[in-house]
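As the work plan foresaw, our protein records have gained a structure token line. A representative record is set out beneath this paragraph:
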Amino acid sequence: MKKAIFPGSFDPFTVGHYDIVKRGLDLFDEIVIGIGRNSTKRETFPIRERLTAIQKIFQDEPRVKVEIYDCLTVDFANEVGARFILRGIRCVEDFEYERNMAEANKQLGGVETIILYTRPEYAHISSTLVRDLYAYNKDVSQFVPNKLR
């Protein structure tokens, strides 16, 4: 079985993330969306709310699982038996960083990285944008697949 993780970290889960996961299902038998804890950053949405919301988004897709993790991404991949990390990038500038991370992940844990470009209609949407808009009490529903409030 070809299994990948999609590390969602502490960021809001955007429509771009949703698109990457849905397209990843064409490549993998199962995708585990990992919600990482980061004690140094303030969470926009509480971790349990994000877990529940993402599970609800994919409730009709049995090949998608959602889990919380407290370790390195490569360690999480190995814990769940995934040999691949699925990543999405919005622009060419993101590619060098992701390529360097892919090399580190391969050396650290023997895990390959698959990088997909976000579709053009989602390229302007970042988790940072959603987090900033939400902080100013703006409606972010157009940027997330399911309202996370």
